[in-house]
Amino acid sequence: MDTAHPSSERGASRQALLQAARELLVTRSYASVGIAEICEHAGVRKGSLYHFFPGKEALTQAMLEALYADFERDVLIPGLTGTGKLRDRIEAFVRAIHAFESRMQTDTGRLPGCPFGNLAVELGSHNPGMRRAIRRHLDAVTAHFRAALDTAVRDGELPPSTDTDAAAEQWLALMEGILVMAKADQDPDTILRLGPALGALLLNPTPEVRHEP
Amino acid sequence: MDTAHPSSERGASRQALLQAARELLVTRSYASVGIAEICEHAGVRKGSLYHFFPGKEALTQAMLEALYADFERDVLIPGLTGTGKLRDRIEAFVRAIHAFESRMQTDTGRLPGCPFGNLAVELGSHNPGMRRAIRRHLDAVTAHFRAALDTAVRDGELPPSTDTDAAAEQWLALMEGILVMAKADQDPDTILRLGPALGALLLNPTPEVRHEP
DNA sequence: TTTGCACTTTACCGACCGGTCAACTAATCT
DNA sequence: AGATTAGTTGACCGGTCGGTAAAGTGCAAA
Lengths: 213, 213
Description:
2 copies of one chain form a homodimer.
Chain A (H helix, E strand, L loop, with lengths): L11 H16 L7 H8 L3 H7 L3 H25 L5 H23 L6 H9 L4 H27 L9 H22 L3 H6 L1 H8 L10
The structure holds a DNA duplex.
């Protein structure tokens, strides 16, 4: 009848499941979204989900993989690569995050915060498999930050003594914290209000960021 | 029989429920801990829970209230009040957080992160009542940070132009972010590694922390 | 044309969810 | 003594959880 699927798209159900999982899990939480709801939202029967994925956890990990790929393509690479000053790149990055969170709040009524950080917080202390998968993505983000900082060192914007590994990690931590606060406020303005702290942390002379031996 | 409760303690069940809720909710997550588990852990029947609390949400809010009171008494007041330099207070604060997270990991096998931030992340975008309750506690923490910064301004450790409101908010954001990362790592060393970023953010000359007009 | 495979559908599982309820016990107050 | 009250108990509610199993569908290669 109306359910015509003339081999039109291979893996259409799989894609629909990934998209539904993304929309629901990003705006809510892992435990509060059931596979029944994901299937309903995707227009797919539950059995099909278990044809494509071993279970909820694997579906979530595949969703995170695709989500990170989009984030890298749409935000990290265009925002952090290039020839501008580090200060401008940081500001562009904050604006991109603010735009994303604002649009999500307009579209779904909820400000999601960082999808990776959210799941790290919810599952980090009692689901080692998910924790490691999320940690991989956070490391990948950190690598982009470090690359931007290394470029700034090469261009003389930061002193050569800068520990870009440590600074990139601090950048991610502060960004995660900003998104936690924005989520607690449910207000994207919090991102703009706290955004300058990134510049203060990364661009100021930091004479004594000593590592523990 | 063995269930002797000779009016020994008024509200003993209530306290047991609050304690069980704290131990379980702090180390896991709101949705993954059921009231049955809380009751079992407290040695109290489910009906009694609903005698003392309207439901799971109210129990959680009461638990957070008591948790914040302990946090204020044990960490905020002893760590941030006093005559020492701001740098020393910040370091003492980081060490206190590290000690708490380390002890929790030793005792329970899990590094919990910030209980308030965790719940803000899990429930912030789809439970307005809980979100507001959590936000109150985060504001209370910020007020302690601001008081410590105001003292530093008064003592000449920070320039009089310092926007201590904004700086306190940044302090909290970075602290939350550090705890997100530590939870993602499940490693308390992350707190010590990122801790110096607090000093870099709060103690350096920040000539241009401009507010949006 | 037959066979195999990718995919879909539906019914079903035991366990658990947060919450309700009425009956009961034991102190307290008049 | 009688009434009131706080607290306790265990059975029970409808609904949902993640996951399973088996039968069926249509297409494509042999």
